[in-house]
Amino acid sequence: MAVYNGAMTTLRSEFLHGIRDELPILIGVLPFGMIYGVSALSAGIPASSAQAMSCIVFAGSAQFVIAQLIATGTPSLVVILTAFIVNIRHMLYSASVAAYTSKLHPLWKWLLAYLLTDEAYAVAISHYQKAGDDMQKHWYFLGAGLALWTTWQLSTAAGIFLGGHIPASWSLDFAATLTFIALVVPALKDNASTAAALTAALTALLAIALPLKLGIAVAALFGMAVGLSLEMKKNRDR
Predict the structure, then answer these.
(1) Which of 48, 83, 151, 210 lies 20 to 30 Å from 36, alpha-carbon distance?
(2) Residues 143, 46 within the same domain
(3) What is the helix (H) or strand (E) element at residue 101, kind and residue range?
């Protein structure tokens, strides 16, 4: 019984630890989700569909792009392709955490894959890289992911409810940018990641005039290419 209670305490503490570490990021997610809700309604997306997108897609940047493309009457195939390109970074996230989750039950893998977002990955991978029992850390991942999921659903619903009643003078648009800056900057720990971020930022500025928001996809591809090249060069020089 003592062993059982000790194991349950460990799992609960990991879960709560994940929630606690995610909380500072959620401050930026709240207005981000509200802005999406308002943007989706402005694009002509029904309230039920806008909320469903937050549940199914569950990816803020892709949801913003989808709303903007729908607002301009972009063909469905282009919308789907663009959303896929914007979210392709999740494949890199999956490869990164695979070493820590490979022994989990398939249901756990499916659940964590669904919850794998920028914000959840940022805290989960840092926790995985710390010393400790990796076999329990998926509960930390679950806590962080569920905290983010719940916040995203509630903030989306709030944005949809408020709709066009949020004054333009609030200027909430900066929240999305600040959220991603807060995630990216602490993760720039070597030359490869720093070069990738700077390349992506510069490319995004230069490609801002591209149609269909393709500048985002181009910037991501250039950034990944530069970062991967430098990482491969570093491995060869070892």
Answers:
(1) 210
(2) yes
(3) helix 89-101
Amino acid occupying residue 175: A
Mean pLDDT computed over 102-120: 92
Contacts of 160 (CB under 8 A, 6+ apart): 37, 38, 40, 41, 47, 50, 51
> Does residue 136 sit in the same domain as residue 223?
no
Identify the domain containing residue 103 by its residue range.
2-168
My answer on whether 200 and 163 are in the same domain is: no
Higher pLDDT, 142 or 7: 142
What is the average pLDDT across 139-148? 95
Identity of residue 171? S
Domain termination residue (choose one: 168, 199, 221): 168
Note whether 132 and 217 are same-domain residues.
Answer: no
What is the per-residue pLDDT across 32-85, written as a single tens digit (0 to 9) for each? Answer: 888 888 888 878 889 999 999 999 999 888 888 888 788 878 788 888 888 888
| pLDDT tops 50 at residue 5 | no
Is residue 132 predicted with pLDDT exceeding 80? no
Same domain for 106 and 160?
Answer: yes
**Spatial contact of 41 and 47, defined as CB atoms under 8 Å apart:** yes
Tokens at residue 192, please? 């490869």
Element (H, E) at 217: helix 214-237
- Establish how many alpha carbons lie within 13 A of residue 107's alpha carbon, considering only the half-sphere containing its beta carbon: 0
Q: Are residues 17 and 109 in the same domain?
A: yes
What is the separation, in whole angstroms, between the first and last Cα of the chain?
A: 50
